[in-house]
Design brief:
- Keywords: Signal.
- This is Gliding motility-associated-like protein.
- By secondary structure, the chain is mainly beta.
- The protein is 7% helix and 44% strand.
- It is built from eight helices and 49 strands.
- The strands form 13 sheets. A six-stranded antiparallel beta sheet has the order 1-8-9-5-11-3, covered by helices on one side. The chain has a five-stranded antiparallel beta sheet with strand order 2-12-19-14-17, with no helix packed on it. A five-stranded mixed beta sheet has the order 45-49-48-46-47, with no helix packed on it.
- The longest helix is centred in the first third of the chain and has 9 residues.
- 34% of the residues are buried.
């Protein structure tokens, strides 16, 4: 509704409307009819008396009661209200999300008043539930409604359109149109064109509306017309069509919602393919605000339903012509399929031919035809044949029909150009030890593969495609073909012995690959160092010696000859523990691993000795981290070459030196010990064990280094009173700073930042920057060995 003064306001300003046109959503053809249920969420009429407050419900119920003969085909839920929308609701406690949404907006005097509607297909839920009570809930507009209250445009509600089939019904066409369009005081005329109709009999014709926001108490020039004729019922007077009524239940308290149906037998004519709905409201100043959400028409109709069936496809050897035996049916329809209905043929989605039906096909009738079709050369020999009826080349229906989704029949077709039983295999061989690039090939396997068990066919082999096409120069002995022209394509001509001109050609590849040599490597003796556990030895260090500049070669290592031959369970390392092993290695061509050679070598290992040296001690730099000059330990060692390692495992590995700065080594890992190994000339010589040494690393507390002054001027230099050797070393220390008058101005501990010249004690000066001057400190290390330090520090701003 629009109250009077709201209508006057609209008449004084420029007003714009945004909406979505009512259009056809879907149609049902057959023994169909429909009904509708629904309810409003308004608890009273919205009108001019609601000037300051109003309420809205969040749920409402309605009942469905169909006859046993009425079987549900489809059910569509619509809900709507004031505001931009709530598109997640529940139907009988089942969560529903909108499939489609609609919007209608009034803009005036710089303000926008949006309204919404939503749609979801609930066929499955309603079919399962059947008759009973349906409750829509969680449609919560309580925060939105107050904005619309002052002009009485606050509303919400829901409805379900139920399409059902009943064999006792006449053949009807049920059409569902939806969108969101409206009228009001200043835009007081709306025309909706309902198209896609096919009226053959107007007896029993009816039309239903789902409308929102109509007000029983406001009816100014409010009419509903179809094809120029005013519609009315006892519930819906001619001058107040949208007045909060439900034609299905007889209710007149469906506040601000209309769920109405009208008899239109005398308002629509046989042969009509469209109808015009006209809605008026208002006189340019005052009027009721009404929005149409959906329109449903039920009309007797005559609509066919062409559907094709491919019965058989007949092909001839060597021909690209096929004979198609097919049937066109006209089932599940309400009208005759006329003669001349277009039929198109497609091969792999490419259009290849067209014909049409010869005679009228009655309801539930059919006709069978044959059609000869030539398949173009660009279509493969095996393809998908599609027969499509009543569609133009853009996929649009030519004549109206009941179901546009069953107009296609599909069949896989293979032309009898000739059949290759199985694809021939490429023949890849390894060269002999000479690697001269010459080899002999036997094509017997491919001969049997391409022919399979076909008894009337034969095959011959050719060195070129031209020879194969013309049957010239066949290879005389396909069991022993000697060549050095590699790689090479060999062509096979499969032909009918009774008609050699009917043939098909396929091919395979022959090639020859380099035969690798397994270069011998000497037996190896590995030093295990001082580790008491086995040493992981990477076999990859031998790869380059084994490959020995051979092209495209890969090496894999195995623990036994059987695995090497089968190329299974290859290993990358072995664990050495003073033992002797035989390692097998397989050298294979990367491009063709079937070309390989196998050899082996022995791998033995032994251990060295470990000596413990005096410990190294340094000052704790915090959290037990210290810096050591590791090379000082060489004073206890014989003259020689030494490497330094952080762990025993690294020392034993002999290949990873991770202490590269022994002159100044910071023990950030807080290691308790490090290891040293001697070597002769080459530190990676795995045959030389050398001597191993262990050195303990000790950090100890040293006296803290207290500066005499600092300058907190944020220049990045001496900005704090930082005491070296204190933090994270004397973890319980307590530092106090006093002014020269003895006033405590700062206290610090291990967890606080160094003093930056700012007071953190005192009620009046806490957090203030202290002036330049001399301050007295008391540092209690809380360590009996170091005690307390006292002195003066100069703060210079």
């Amino acid at each position: 509704m629009k109250n009077i003064y709201f209508s006057l306001w609209l008449s004084l300003v420029s007003l714009a409307v945004f909406s979505q046109d009512i259009e056809l959503y879907t149609q049902f053809n057959g023994h169909y009819d429909y009904t509708a249920i629904g309810n409003t969420l308004n608890d009273a009429e919205n009108n001019e008396t609601q000037s300051t407050s109003c309420t809205i419900l969040t749920s409402a119920s309605a009942s469905l009661s169909l006859l046993p003969t009425q079987n549900i085909t489809a059910a569509y839920l619509y809900w709507a209200g004031s505001g931009t929308g709530d598109f997640s609701v529940k139907l009988n406690n089942q969560s529903i999300t909108a499939d489609r949404t609609f919007a209608y907006t009034l803009n005036f005097s710089g303000q926008s008043f949006p309204f919404f509607a939503a749609f979801t297909d609930v066929t499955t839920q309603v079919t399962t539930t059947g008759n009973g009570t349906y409750t829509l809930s969680d449609l919560d507009l309580t925060n939105v409604i107050p904005t619309y209250c002052y002009n009485a445009t606050n509303f919400a509600g829901w409805s379900i359109i139920i399409i059902y089939e009943d064999a006792s019904l006449p053949l009807n066409q049920v059409s569902v149109y939806d969108g969101l369009q409206g009228v009001h005081a200043t835009v007081n005329n709306l025309q909706i064109v309902l198209d896609n109709l096919n009226v053959v009999d107007n007896i029993g014709a009816k039309i239903g509306f789902l409308a929102w926001e109509g007000d029983e108490g406001l009816a100014i020039n409010e009419t509903l017309r179809i094809n120029g004729n005013i519609l009315s019922t006892p519930l819906n007077p001619a001058n107040n069509a949208f007045n909060g009524t439900n034609s299905y239940t007889g209710m007149s308290n469906l506040y601000n919602m209309d769920l109405d149906v009208y008899d239109i037998e005398n308002n629509i004519n046989i042969g009509d393919t469209s109808a015009i709905i006209e809605l008026t409201s208002g006189d340019g100043i005052n009027g009721d605000f009404i929005m149409i959400n959906n329109v449903v028409t039920v009309l007797n109709s005559e609509v066919p339903n062409p559907s094709p069936i491919i019965n058989a496809v007949i092909t001839d050897c060597g021909s690209r012509d096929i004979l198609i035996d097919y049937t066109i049916t006209n089932n599940n329809c309400t009208g005759i399929l006329p003669a001349g209905t277009q039929i198109d043929f497609y091969a792999n989605t490419s259009w290849v031919g067209q014909t049409s039906t010869q005679n009228d096909i009655p309801i539930d009738g059919s006709e069978t035809y044959t059609y000869t079709l030539n398949i173009p050369q660009n279509i493969p020999d095996s393809f998908t044949l599609e027969l499509i009826v009543n569609k133009d080349l853009n996929g649009n229906s030519i004549i109206p029909e009941t179901n546009e989704d069953d107009n296609i029949a599909v069949k896989n077709v293979a032309l009898k150009i000739l059949k290759i039983a199985k694809t021939p295999v490429d023949i890849i061989q390894c060269d002999d030890s000479s690697n001269d690039g010459i080899s002999s090939y036997n094509f017997t396997e491919n001969y049997h593969l391409v022919l399979g068990n076909q008894t009337s066919l034969d095959a011959s082999f050719y060195a070129s495609l031209n020879d194969a096409e013309n049957a010239n120069n066949p290879i005389p002995d396909y069991t022993d073909y000697l060549t050095n022209n590699l790689p090479q394509v060999i062509y096979i001509r499969i032909y009918d012995e009774a008609d050699p001109s009917c043939y098909r050609i396929t091919s395979f590849m022959i090639d020859l690959y380099y035969q690798p040599t397994a270069t011998p490597i000497p037996d190896q003796h590995i030093c295990l160092g001082i580790s008491e556990t086995p040493l992981a030895y990477s076999l990859a260090i031998n790869e380059q010696q084994i490959i020995d500049n051979q092209p495209d070669i890969a090496v894999r290592f195995f623990q036994n000859q059987t695995d090497a031959e089968a190329n299974l369970n290859h290993i990358q390392e072995v664990m050495l523990d003073e033992q002797s092993l035989t390692i097998y290695y397989r050298v294979e061509n990367n491009l063709h691993p079937a070309c390989y050679a196998i050899a082996s070598f022995k791998l033995s290992s032994y251990r060295g000795t470990l000596t413990t040296l005096p410990p190294l001690t340094t000052c704790n730099e915090g959290k037990k981290i210290g810096t050591y000059k590791l090379t000082e330990i060489e004073n206890y060692l014989p003259e020689g070459n030494y490497l330094y390692f952080e762990t025993k495992a690294l020392a034993v590995s002999q290949f990873i030196v991770n202490i590269t700065n022994p002159e100044s080594y910071t023990n950030i890992k807080k290691l308790d010990e490090i290891y040293i190994r001697s070597y002769e000339n080459d530190p990676t010589n795995i045959d030389y064990c050398g001597e191993f040494y262990k050195v303990s690393l000790i950090t100890e507390k040293c006296p803290p280094r207290i500066p005499q002054g600092f300058s907190p001027n944020t220049d990045g230099v001496n900005d704090t009173f930082f005491i070296s050797g204190l933090y994270d070393i004397f973890e319980d220390f307590h530092l106090k700073i006093f002014s020269r008058y003895g006033t405590l101005i700062y206290e610090g501990w291990n967890h606080t930042q160094a003093w930056d010249g700012t007071s953190n004690r005192g009620l009046l000066n806490q957090g203030e920057e202290l002036p330049t001057g001399t301050y007295f400190y008391v540092l209690d290390t809380k360590d009996a060995k170091f005690g307390t330090y006292k002195g003066w520090v100069y703060l210079n701003r």
